[in-house]
Amino acid sequence: MKNEKTLKALTKGEMEVMNILWDAPQALTVHEIVAHYAEPRPAYTTVGTFLKILEAKGYVEHHRRDVTGRTFYYSPMLTREKYTIQVLNDVKDSLFGCSAKRFCSFLIQNEELSNEDLREIMEMIEKEDV
């Protein structure tokens, strides 16, 4: 992802909206996004503000279903996987001196992994034919 434009980080509220959009099978309106929240739901205007910010940051785009319609439908411009890769690469580069080895070592040492977890990780590494 080194050649791709680095997007600005998401706040917790923006991330909630993105997760709703990523999980949706099609573009959603602000009302539909609000309906996906658990109670207490945020205000329509709050979600609308998040969407404007997300659009300015390059995470979402909107369109109308018909020319005369006033309702905007929002959809993500990148996948959850691409965002996750970007975030993890940023963490690796900024906190671990661009070292994937140091990043992985940190995770393994600071997570409570069972022997079974470690075995599965080793199997994944061996399958990669590194």
Please give the CATH class of the largest domain.
Answer: Mainly Alpha
Compute the number of strand runs.
Answer: 2
Helix content: 55-70%
Outline the biggest β-sheet: 2 strands, antiparallel
The chain-level mean pLDDT equals 91
Provide a count of the helices: 6
Task: Report low-confidence residues grouped into runs of 5 or more.
Answer: none
Order of strands across the widest beta sheet?
1-2
- CATH fold node name of the largest domain: Arc Repressor Mutant, subunit A
Description of the structure:
With 130 residues, this protein is mainly alpha-helical. It has two domains: 12-76, Winged helix-like DNA-binding domain superfamily/Winged helix DNA-binding domain (Arc Repressor Mutant, subunit A), CATH 1.10.10; 80-127, no CATH class. Helices cover 55% and strands 8% of the residues. It is built from six helices and two strands. A two-stranded antiparallel sheet has the order 1-2. A hairpin with a 7-residue loop joins strand 1 and strand 2 (72-76). The longest helix has 16 residues, at 80-95. The radius of gyration is 19 Å and the shape is elongated. The mean pLDDT is 91.
